[in-house]
Design brief:
Chain A: Pathway: Protein modification; protein glycosylation. The complex is a heterodimer of chains A (about 750) and B (about 675). Chain A has about 750 residues and is of the alpha+beta class. In chain A, the strands form four sheets. A six-stranded antiparallel β-sheet of chain A has the order 10-9-6-5-2-13, with no helix packed on it. In chain A, strands 3, 4, 7, 8, 11 and 12 form a six-stranded antiparallel β-sheet that branches. In chain A, strands 1-14 form a two-stranded antiparallel ribbon. In chain B, α7 packs antiparallel against α8. The chains are: A alpha+beta (about 750), B alpha+beta (about 675).
Chain lengths: ~750, ~675
């Protein structure tokens, strides 16, 4: 931050009283803030100076915004190749442009916006986004990066305004803005085609509008009140629509709203009707509106992605019938299963796939050395099985035989079409799930033994019924051992081509893992029926895609021995993420927080807890605080408390998550932490200045403190900026390196 | 089941004359025919095993909880004359003794301490009102702390109740701070007393449990391998026997075995053998065809390596020994083949992004040896630290390529005898156990000749220096491993999910008589379970109603009745919540018995709600009588159900298949019916 700003600060009162809603008068009634309001505006400024202040206010905001945009857009085009997760999100943007269906663990809004930005900026969706490091060449990627940087740039002014509203102090807001502008991590994360800038944009927008509508509380149902309230709802829908992490900000707004309503409910001057109106307004704006918007994003998502693509196999058969290009689309197949039919069998558990076998044996030492049986998510000839009678080997497709339908409770044999081996199980332990039995392909040309016999059962139906394609939920019970055919969902090692394990489970508990349905069905002797009846309704699609997403999310488990990031690493800035480049000749970008900012944040949290509890205990003991101190304590406890809650909600839930975690998950929490730092230091310095009021330079302490913090952050940014803007040259241990001497922790690798 | 929970009901219904009678009944129902069946029931198979370990003082590790519970059981066994020589290996084996509780499991002990903690806190809270700092005040306060730490010491689940008690205590302390009739000093004393009793005492006791545990089990046992070398060296027998008398400082010429610190998927040692990498792998990639280097999970003479000074030729320790320090350049020479550890820019067999590690064979094909490694001591105090046996954790950084010696965790195919793959990791990100090694066995090499050296490698170590690990170091390691230990395969016939517990959709068959169909099940009294849940729902709704009305300044209850209602709810409903909700977040295998602590609290709530309805909601005498009649009806139906299910609780009567089917009230109950 240029020093001129700081100088300007010192002269103006540092406390403008701005904003369309009168800020502090909020809830003046019950709470003892009148004194504070008096303390905070010792004299009523004259008309001229007010105009001057307003101009200064706008100028500062413009400056902060400008600086943020400038830092985010500087060298945005470098490096001109795919960095880190751009390979996923860029690719998904392309899918939207090409309208092919795909599957991802996050809700669609973020990727849809990326796709839209790409579309508007002239990207045609032809780039493959294969792996990090691929050059973009002639493909236009700046539109997508620019869009992300644009949203990422708004974080700083949003944080600035939020802190300004919470603390009513320009210097606190400026400090926060500086921390975020000069944080290399935030900067890096905003410069690429990622979901994070979009997510953080919505989170901060929700936070800002929540704070704004809180401060409009003295004028309920006024236009600005409605505006901010509904804007909160819209932002919430946006945050949740980008990533499920948006749930945390929803939780925060929810808690705030409950507290708010509780307060209103206790205000006996309000009639129950008024309270009811308040409640309805909030339900409308914070529940109905976001839900409608969120659902709408999904509607658009399904409308745009109408072509079959790489995500088909993750979804149920009925779902796939919607996608043009999928073999179930507009298909017509025989309705009832008959002997001799060629079928594919799909597990009902999402993202497990089709029963599959191939000409590879289980390796030595893993059960019997027979042919592997797995489940496989993609469509393939090896997914085809022929359904046969257990006791005859005659060809049921021989036209001289009458058609015989398969019925619930029949004993059957499943022959793998490509290899002519029977689905088989025996008392050998399964490869991964040791308590289950191994399932193999056995026999030659359909001749095996009695371990190839399975009883086919339809769940919840009577014996003797026919079995319907797609709609019957069936189980296969192994006749000899009594176990049930299922997939454990565990990934086999390399020898099994990383397909999923199929086992026969002796535990007869009914889980989706052991329930299957018949998807493809070929039988020339039977008449085909159209499958259009299967088309699921929109609520069904919505529900199913959420189930698949949740399962996909919890399925992201760390592999053995993988270096994973632990939540406790994050606030201490223990380890960064490599965005691009490894060797000294590469263009290297390394996602790492500016250590000065991050460690200051960490210290501030500790300091906040300490000072906050001292003040709280003092107040609980009934200590009489001077008006000035009481006002500052209110800011610290209320404003700081809000932000601390945000940090807690965006950080601690990660400790409970079983999925793979990465460093960038901390950034939403980091935004809150920076706001806390701004509020805390400003308040502490003011308290300090107040405590030393007798000393001639007391006022100077505050100004000097804030200035030195601003300059310190700016200087640290000057030191660490190569991390974000990219660097070429030797690694940090070399004195020639741009980062020489800056590798303060061994765990940073740049 | 319900008889067993009888006693707690008395606790909140406040002490009355029937206390003695009910306690007697509770005891009777629990102890009745305790010695039957004379067989090992369900998890007793594990706990019994652990007790045997105590008797034999063998070290073991269990991930279900801290050692206090096991010790209580062991004490019982000890008093009963159990000598630990019975082998707990098969459910249904005949047994000479069944200890302590009906089923020798930890839940009942845990519940006892949970309730003791809550009861003593309530007692303490009552004392607080009229006689703070009196003798009984101190007694109940301390007892709360002790009971909490005992509960935590039995199972980690006890933490939930501990947190609850702490939370309630914190709220009360906060009110105390706000009480301006008390002087600052007085408030401070109050807070200090609580901090000591509720924080310091539990921590000290908890440490004490471990202290006793580690004193009791000082011999090596089956779980040694999970622990670090240093820990193992502190156990009698096992590694200590081998490492006792090893020289401490590794010197040039030392013969060492190197153990990987991460030790996953299995603990293993750096290993090499005569065989070479196959020229061409199955997928068509080529290798260097040099001697394999692997990680081997068993002790073997091929695990020995000699630390060589690159500037000298000899493989023996000079006199005086020259210790190896942090940052020194070393070569690692494989003892049996005298080839040195090497890595180069060839893709590793299973992890193609990393470098292959081999023992160098000079084929004369312009592939030079790259066998210099720089030693980095990870846990060094200063940069001149000496490499110490067992204590030092070291990394080997390859000088030419700056790759780090790492255990990839993958199993090599048949040509590598399914041993684990070792690679040179080029992009090493910070500290990770798989790149860190420590010296486990160590001696100073003295023989120049290869033949002699081989003999030396085969012989056990000689020299004598002994070391001990401090209690805190051992405690923190043990604690860490217990928390980190995960059982991999988590499916069990009787496992269930938390949602099934509330509705009692599941049961656990504990035992089946070898011949008849007498059997013992963990199965709740369905009337009690349903009414418990109902009480909870009523409590929640009533509280919400009262809260909203109070907010609008309508006070339905007198102040003291309201406070009692809130406190009872906080303890009982809160106790239920803290003991139940966390299970939704757990990924381990869950059983019905995990719900029992929560259920106990739910049942405590039942009389509170009944009393409240009768006192405050029944307006007329008539209503009151009707209500009492309902309660009696409810109570007798509970007794009836309990009586009907009795054969499944005590397992004393053999029922016919028809009778058993009649008892199977829910389809999901798994009652064993013999086929004849």
């Amino acid at each position: 931050m240029p020093p001129a700003t700081g100088g300007g600060l010192a002269e103006s009162e540092l406390r403008p009283r701005r904003g369309r809603c009168s800020p502090q008068a909020a809830r003046a009634a019950g709470r003892d803030v009148a004194a504070e309001a008096v303390a905070r505006s010792p004299k009523r400024p004259a008309w001229g100076s007010r105009r001057f202040e307003a101009a200064g206010w706008w100028a500062l905001l413009a400056l902060v915004t400008l600086l943020s945009f400038a830092t985010r857009f500087h060298r945005l085009d470098e490096p001109p190749h795919i960095c880190w997760d751009e390979t996923h999100f860029g690719k998904m943007g392309s899918y939207y442009i090409n309208r092919t269906f795909f599957f991802d663990v996050h809700p669609p809004l973020g990727k849809m916006l990326i796709g839209l930005a790409g579309y508007l900026s002239g990207y045609d969706g032809t780039f493959l986004f294969q792996k990090p490091g691929d050059k973009y060449e002639h493909h236009s990627y700046m539109g997508m990066r620019g869009f992300c940087a644009f949203l990422g740039s708004w974080l700083v002014p949003f944080a600035y305004l939020t802190v300004l509203d919470l603390s009513k102090s320009l210097s606190a807001a400026l400090l926060t803005a500086a921390l975020l502008t000069f944080d290399t991590g935030c900067l890096t994360l905003s410069q690429y085609i990622l979901l994070d800038p979009i997510l953080m944009f919505f989170i901060m927008a929700a936070m800002l509008s929540m704070v704004k509508y809180n401060s409009c509380a003295d004028r309920p149902f006024s236009a600005p009140w409605w505006f901010w309230l509904s804007l909160t709802g819209v932002s919430l829908a946006g945050a949740l629509g980008v990533k499920f992490v948006g749930l945390f900000i929803i939780l925060q707004v929810g808690l705030n709203t409950i507290a708010d309503l509780w307060y209103l409910f206790g205000d006996l001057s309000l009639s129950l009707v008024t309270v009811g109106k308040h409640l309805t307004a909030r339900v409308l704006c914070l529940i109905v509106l976001p839900l409608a918007l969120y659902t709408a994003t999904f509607a658009v998502h399904f409308m745009v992605l109408s072509k079959s693509g790489p995500g088909d196999g993750f979804f149920s058969s009925a779902f796939q019938a919607r996608l043009s290009g999928n073999n179930l689309h507009n298909a017509s197949i025989p309705e009832h299963l008959a002997y001799g039919s060629v079928i594919t069998v799909k597990n009902l558990r999402m993202a497990i796939g089709y029963l599959h076998s191939h000409r590879h044996l289980y390796p030595e030492g893993i059960g019997a050395r027979q042919q592997q049986v797995t489940t496989y998510l993609h469509k393939d000839y090896n997914n085809l099985w022929i359904i046969k009678k257990h006791n005859t080997n005659s060809d049921p497709l021989d036209p001289s035989f009458p058609v015989e339908f398969v019925r619930h409770g029949d004993i059957i044999r499943l022959e793998h079409k490509e290899t002519s081996r029977n689905l088989h199980s025996h008392y050998h332990e399964a490869p991964m799930t040791r308590k289950h039995y191994q399932v193999t392909g056995y026999g030659i040309n359909g001749t095996g033994d009695s371990n190839d016999f399975w009883r086919i059962e339809v769940v919840n139906r009577k014996f003797g019924n026919r079995i319907k394609v797609l709609r019957s939920r069936i189980r296969f019970i192994h006749l000899v051992t009594g176990c049930v055919l299922g997939s454990s969902g565990k990934v086999l090692p390399k020898w099994g081509w990383e397909q999923l394990e199929v086992t026969c489970t002796p535990y007869l508990k009914e889980t989706l893992n052991s329930i299957w349905n018949v998807e493809d069905h070929i039988n020339p002797k039977l008449p085909n029926i159209s499958l259009d009846v299967l088309q699921p309704s929109f609520p069904e699609i919505l529900l199913e895609s959420h189930m698949v997403m949740i399962r996909g999310n919890s399925g992201l488990k760390p592999k053995d021995n993988e270096f994973t990031s632990k939540p406790w690493h994050w606030p201490i800035n223990y380890q960064g993420l490599r965005f691009s480049g490894v060797n000294d000749t590469d263009f290297r970008v390394y996602l790492l927080g500016n250590p000065v900012v991050w460690w200051l944040n960490l210290l501030s949290i500790a300091l906040y807890l300490l000072s906050g509890s001292i003040i709280a205990v003092a107040m609980q003991r009934g200590a009489r605080l001077p008006a000035e101190v009481a006002g500052l304590s209110q800011v610290l406890l209320r404003g700081g408390g809000q932000v601390l809650l945000g940090w807690t909600l965006h950080y601690f839930p990660f400790f409970l998550m079983g999925r793979v975690l990465y460093f960038h998950h901390y950034f939403p929490a980091m935004l809150f932490s920076s706001m806390l730092t701004g509020i805390l230091w400003d308040t502490l310095l003011r308290l300090c200045a107040w405590g030393l009021a007798s000393w001639p330079l007391a006022r100077g302490i505050h100004v000097a403190g804030i200035l030195s913090l601003l300059l310190g952050t700016a200087y640290s940014f000057y030191l660490f900026h190569p991390l974000a803007y990219g660097m070429v040259g030797p690694l940090a241990q070399d004195p020639q390196s741009p980062m020489a001497g800056l590798r303060w922790l061994d765990s940073w690798d740049f | 089941m319900w008889g067993f929970l009888k006693r707690p009901v008395v606790v909140t219904a406040d002490i009355n004359l029937s206390l003695v009678a009910l306690t007697g009944m509770g005891l009777l129902s629990r102890l009745w025919r305790l010695t039957y069946p004379r067989a090992v029931v369900f998890d007793e198979v594990y706990y019994g095993q652990y007790i045997s370990f105590y008797m034999k003082q063998i070290f073991f590790l269990d991930d279900s909880g801290p050692p206090f519970g096991h010790m209580v059981l062991a004490l019982g066994g000890y008093l009963g004359g159990f000598d630990g020589n019975f082998l707990w290996n098969r459910i249904g084996a005949e047994n000479a003794l069944i200890t302590q509780s009906r089923l020798m499991l930890l839940e009942s002990v845990l519940i006892f301490f949970n309730l003791l903690a809550v009861l003593s806190y309530l007692k303490f809270f009552n004392c607080q009102k009229h006689s703070p700092f009196s003798l009984s005040w101190w007694f109940w306060l301390t007892l709360t702390g002790v009971a909490c730490s005992c509960a935590v010491g039995i199972k980690y689940m006890g933490v939930f109740t501990y947190v609850l008690v702490l939370g309630v205590a914190a709220v009360h302390a906060w009110h105390l701070i706000g009480d301006q009739t008390l002087s600052n000093v007085c408030v401070f004393c109050h807070l200090l007393a609580r901090a000591v009793a509720l924080l310091v005492i539990p921590v000290v006791l908890y440490l004490l449990f471990f202290y006793v545990h580690l004193i009791l089990v000082f011999r090596s046992g089956p779980h040694d391998q999970i622990m670090s070398s240093a820990f193992q060296a502190s156990l009698e027998g096992g590694l200590a026997r081998i490492t006792q008398g090893q020289p401490l400082e590794v010197a040039f010429g030392s013969q060492v075995t190197l153990r990987n610190v991460f030790g996953k998927p299995v603990p293993c040692w750096l290993h090499s053998h005569q065989d070479t990498y196959p020229m061409i792998y199955e997928n068509g990639r080529g290798s260097s065809h040099q001697q394999q280097v692997t990680c081997y999970p068993f002790k073997d003479v091929n695990n020995w390596w000699i630390v060589k000074d690159p500037r000298r030729h000899q493989l023996v320790v000079s006199s005086p020994p020259r210790p190896v320090r942090h940052g020194d350049m070393v070569q690692l020479v494989h003892g049996m083949t005298t080839r040195s550890l090497n890595t180069h820019d060839v893709a590793a067999p299973l992890s193609p992004h990393s470098q292959e590690v081999s023992c160098y064979i000079d084929y004369n094909i312009s592939m030079p040896a790259q066998n210099l490694w720089r030693l980095e001591i990870v846990n060094r105090g200063s940069d001149t630290d000496v490499w110490k046996t067992i204590l030092s954790e070291v990394r080997f950084v390859h000088v030419n390529t700056s790759a780090v010696l790492k255990l990839s965790g993958a199993h090599l195919p048949d040509w590598g005898y399914r041993q684990l793959e070792i690679v040179g990791e080029k992009l090493s990100r910070g500290y990770h156990g798989s790149t860190v090694w420590n010296v486990e066995e160590h001696r100073y090499g003295a023989s120049q000749e290869q033949r002699e050296r081989e003999r030396e490698l085969h012989s056990p170590a000689q020299v004598d220096v002994s070391r001990n690990l401090s209690f805190m170091a051992r405690f923190s390691e043990l604690q860490w491993r217990m928390l980190a230990l995960r059982s991999d395969d988590s499916e069990h016939k009787y496992s269930s999910s938390p949602l099934e517990w509330v509705t009692l959709d599941t049961n656990i068959a504990y035992w089946l008589h070898p011949r008849t169909s007498a059997q013992i099940h963990l199965l709740g009294n369905i009337v009690i379970w349903v009414s418990g849940s109902l009480a909870l729902a009523i409590y929640a709704l009533l509280s919400l109603w009262y809260l909203l009305r109070r907010r609008r300044n309508v006070h339905d209850l007198p102040q003291d009745a309201w406070l009692r209602w809130v406190l009872a709810g906080a303890l009982c409903a809160g106790g239920w919540a803290v003991n139940y909700v966390p299970f939704f977040l757990m990924e381990k295998t869950l059983f019905l018995y995990h719900y029992l602590p929560a259920l106990t609290f739910q049942i405590l709530l039942l009389p509170v709600v009944l009393q409240h309805i009768s006192d405050h909601l029944c307006r007329s005498q008539l209503q009151r009588s009707v209500f009492s009649a309902l309660v009696v009806a409810w109570y007798s139906s509970a007794c009836h159900v309990s009586n009907t299910l009795r054969p499944l609780t005590y397992g004393d009567k053999s029922l016919s298949p028809h009778e058993l089917k009649a008892l199977r009230w829910k389809d999901s109950w798994d009652i064993l019916i013999r086929k004849h």
